[in-house]
Amino acid sequence: MPVINIELTREGVTREQKRALIQQVSDVVTNILNKDPNLTHVVIREIDTDNWGYGGEQVSVLREQGITADKK
Amino acid sequence: MPVINIELTREGVTREQKRALIQQVSDVVTNILNKDPNLTHVVIREIDTDNWGYGGEQVSVLREQGITADKK
Amino acid sequence: MPVINIELTREGVTREQKRALIQQVSDVVTNILNKDPNLTHVVIREIDTDNWGYGGEQVSVLREQGITADKK
Amino acid sequence: MPVINIELTREGVTREQKRALIQQVSDVVTNILNKDPNLTHVVIREIDTDNWGYGGEQVSVLREQGITADKK
Amino acid sequence: MPVINIELTREGVTREQKRALIQQVSDVVTNILNKDPNLTHVVIREIDTDNWGYGGEQVSVLREQGITADKK
Amino acid sequence: MPVINIELTREGVTREQKRALIQQVSDVVTNILNKDPNLTHVVIREIDTDNWGYGGEQVSVLREQGITADKK
Question: What value of ipTM does the predicted structure carry?
Answer without folding.
Answer: 0.97
